[in-house]
Amino acid sequence: MKIAPVVPGVQPTYLAPSSVAEEDQQPVINIAPPSASGASSHMPASPLEDSMEEVSSTFAEHVERKSKALNQRKVKFVAQPGSRAMQRIEHIEKIYELIELLEHPQHAQLETQNPKMQTLLQRSPSPELDDLLQASGNDPVRCDVLLRHALIQAQRVQNTPLVERARQSIEQLHEKKGAEVSAGLNNAHAIASFSTDPTQKQAMRQLYYETIVHLQSGNAMLDALLNRFGSVHFNQGLRTLQRALSDDIAARNSSIPRRALQKIMASLKDAGHISQTLTASKLLLARLSSTLPAVGLSPLDLTRRLLNLSTNGAYLRDLQNLTRDVAGQHPHHQILFLAGLVPLVCHLPLGLWRDDSSKNRQMALNLLRTMDW
């Protein structure tokens, strides 16, 4: 690299303009080694020394600018936001983050399931969706992550046929199970906070798929929670799924229309009171057990029947069947049960009643009070 010599007496372009006051200019620090004589350091420098110092300074600044430019280009290549390389890195990191969220952080099942997916994708013609789902434990979101992982590996080794099959399989999955995939991606963080057990995580995802994505019913979700966890982990499961709903609503691609998710979320506002209904059911049945020869339902079953009552509306036939299942055929026993059932129905969370909630709850109470046995 050729450096043009600095002509003595000519001001370099990087110095401050002449309009700046003399006292405001920064002093130039001489980094040249001192001479052997202490007195000589105070002697004025020769024009040649001035020229060499300026050349040295100019060269140092040029090297520094070149070094900074190279570093900036390197950083731009590695971590420039929005660059293709950075997007690829972020995509790979996202895949591995999802693997940890969907599975146990230290014992991911995907490590054993991934070879199965690779084998399937090497088939000709391309595998059916049912085969892909079976290889991923019948979980659409896990299937999506496995396929994307296989796609990345195929791209790394430039296996064009495998890349094409992986892409086709992803498109097929999203065409048939896109809502479930979106739900699983959106609620992965929420469900990961519930348990580290992959089986429990998948059970929660399946519950979300069935009751929220397909049935779009908060009451169906509560019934499924009660059926799976009973009273022990009901509140924890409810909070997890409420957070999952919130994350689904906030996501860029929600699993189902946001308005439907928001309606479900609103219906679950007081759903935590179901645990109080469970307790009240237990107390009622314990009290009746001292009078009735046999009680036909457990507190959990009674709570689920009441939840079904609020979901579908109160009908005389359903109330009669419930009364017989608990109290049997004896009219006196039935009256005792109905008297204890009224406060249970009255304190069911209002948001769980269908349509006009206040009206439907009042109709159920009126029907209970006027039942003629």
Automatic annotation (TrEMBL):
One of its GO terms (biological process) is protein secretion by the type III secretion system. InterPro entries: HrpJ-like (IPR010812), T3SS_LcrE (IPR013401), T3SS_TyeA-rel (IPR013351). This is HrpJ protein. It comes from the Bacteria. Signal peptide: none annotated. It comes from Enterobacter agglomerans (Erwinia herbicola). Residues 58-229 form the Hypersensitivity response secretion-like HrpJ domain. One of its GO terms (cellular component) is cell surface. Residues 32-65 are annotated as: Disordered. The gene is hrpJ.
